[in-house]
Amino acid sequence: MTDHTETILDANAVERTLRRMAGEIVESNGGTDNLVIVGIQRRGVQLADRIVTLIEASDGVTVPRGALDITLYRDDLQTIGPRPVVGATDVPGAIDGSTVVIVDDALFTGRTIRAALDELADFGRPARIELAVLIDRGGRELPIQPDVVGRKIEARSGDRVDVLVEDLDGRSAVVLVSKRFE
Amino acid sequence: MTGGAPLGKDLLGLEPLSGEQITLILDTAEPFKEISERAIKKVPTLRGSTVVNLFFENSTRTRVSFEFAEKRLSADTVNVAASASSVSKGETLVDTARNLEAMRIDMVVMRHPSSGAAAFLADRIESNVINAGDGTHEHPTQGLLDLLTLRDHFKKIDGLKVCICGDVLHSRVARSNIWGLRKLGAEVAVCGPRSLLPSAIDEMGVTVFSRIEEAIEWSDALNILRLQLERMTSGYIPSLREYNRYFGVTRERLERAPRDVLILHPGPMNRGVEIDSDVADGPHSVILPQVTNGVAVRMAVLYLLSGGRPEQAEAAKTVKSGALA
């Protein structure tokens, strides 16, 4: 059995996709008023940064950007043995009454987003929460669906979707890694 | 204490930990600082876990700090204030261990007047044990919060010069600090009257100063220990006034230092004895940030240990099979 690697989005395609997603976020909210973009650690934060920069370029407005680390809200902490590393959480100002857009790299089971919704509720009561993901790979275990999607693919349960970002991985791409029998 | 899990089952002291493990705890404490700044200061991480704070010695600040840390992680907490004075300590601890385990607890935070009590308990129960001070041995979470406070201020520990002043002889805080600081690459000194320094202190790899002026001149930071007033009647020092005159950290002494010296104190302070009010409330004092960091560091330890695998503790298996020592 060997790993089969397929590039789903290259750097240019990631950039185009994020630009469209940034446009959709602004359009569906009728502008940028009361908008807060919150990335999920780690790669969601990088993507949220890109989206904030793209909105800045197109609309001339800097939308507040936050970061959520959902580790402490995971539903599998009792079963996973050694504790995972906890990253920084930083939610900008009061989010009461605002529209919070959660940004993550890949949407799979939906459990990360469930945890993120619980964590956001500890910071206040947004008027609305939306979900934007670069890749929706299917395989949901909870009733959670994205509002803004970069690319939807059908990955099998053993497959891995790697979202690579410039700051952490040295290049920008989305790669599907699947096990194949030779 | 090494093995599959990053920390293992228990936190008994800083001596058995590696520099990497200590750094892991300090790094983990960073995101926990933010939780105490939230409007809702609580995360669900330890929901359903039961923590017993078992204190055989009075301690308000350490117990309160642990209790805040436990509650902010959503653990259920029970405080047990026990007195060890009337019963044989060994027997009491074994019985206590059996009773606690029978009530299906997950963690024990213990303070005890006997050195080694935490290790004794850890060997006999499956629950995680956190040493909150055992005799004159160690007080690891105090050492960790001191390290975190130093790292916050200097952005590093490696190469720092830290002098621990006062009653080093009776101080578990001093021992945990010396181990932790040395493992992270700091230079450590102690300063105090010879009667309050352990005779073989140099073997711990520390410099010894007998004059506080020399210590201040050498140091980037001073960790000023509480002069335990009950020591005075035991003949360790002639009088509080004399102690203050020769070893008190005063503004005048600090002003003569070649650089700003950071001031730490584990509390509770005896103002006008080991530390003057001008210094305790001065611009270089981080005594209150130490208290804030204490909660974050204890949250980090509870979080990391909750992932330890109790079945890895060899000794706990012997309890299960009934071979209790």
Compact summary:
The complex is a heterodimer of chains A (182) and B (325). Chain A has 4 helices and 8 strands.
Protein model, in words:
- In chain A, strand 2, helix 2 and strand 3 (65-68) form a beta-alpha-beta unit.
- In chain A, helix 1 crosses helix 2 (43-59).
- Chain A has helices at 11-28, 43-59, 111-121, 166-169, and strands spanning 2-9, 35-40, 65-68, 99-107, 128-136, 148-152, 160-164, 173-180.
- Chain A starts with a strand and ends with a strand.
- Chain A has a single domain, classed as Rossmann fold.
- Chain A is an alpha/beta fold.
- Chain A is built from four helices and eight strands; from the N terminus they run E-H-E-H-E-E-H-E-E-E-H-E.
- A five-stranded parallel β-sheet of chain A has the order 3-2-4-5-6. In chain A, strands 1-8-7 form a three-stranded antiparallel β-sheet.
- Chain B has 325 residues and is of the alpha/beta class.
- Chain B has two domains: 19-139 and 294-320, 3-Layer(aba) Sandwich (Rossmann fold), CATH 3.40.50.1370; 140-290, 3-Layer(aba) Sandwich (Rossmann fold), CATH 3.40.50.1370.
- Chain B is built from 13 helices and nine strands.
- Chain B has helices at residues 19-35, 61-72, 89-102, 117-122, 140-154, 172-183, 212-218, 230-233, 240-247, 251-255, 277-280, 287-305, 314-320; strands at 50-55, 76-81, 107-112, 128-134, 161-165, 187-191, 207-209, 221-224, 262-264.
- In chain B, helix 6 links the parallel strand 5 and strand 6.
- In chain B, helix 1 crosses helix 12 and helix 5 (140-154) packs across helix 12.
- Chain B is globular, with a radius of gyration of 20 Å.
- Residues 1-5 and 309-325 of chain B have low confidence and may be disordered.
- Chains A and B meet through loops of A and helix 1 of B.
* Uncertain spans of chain B: 1-5, 309-325
Any low-confidence stretches of chain A, pLDDT <50, length ≥5? none
Rg from Cα of chain A: 16 Å
Major sheet of chain B: order of its strands?
A: 7-6-5-8-9
The class by helix and strand makeup of chain B works out as alpha/beta
Straight-line distance between termini of chain B: 21 Å
CATH evolutionary superfamily of the largest domain in chain B: Aspartate/ornithine carbamoyltransferase
Oligomeric state of the chains present here: heterodimer
Residue fraction in strands of chain A: 25-35%
**What is the topology, as strand order, of the major beta sheet of chain A?**
3-2-4-5-6
Most residues in contact: chain pair: A-B, 20 and 25 residues
Rg of chain B over CA atoms, rounded to whole Å, is 20 Å
Order of helices and strands of chain B: HEHEHEHEHEHEEHEHHHEHHH
Instruction: Describe the global form of chain B.
Output: globular
Count of the separate structural domains of chain A: 1
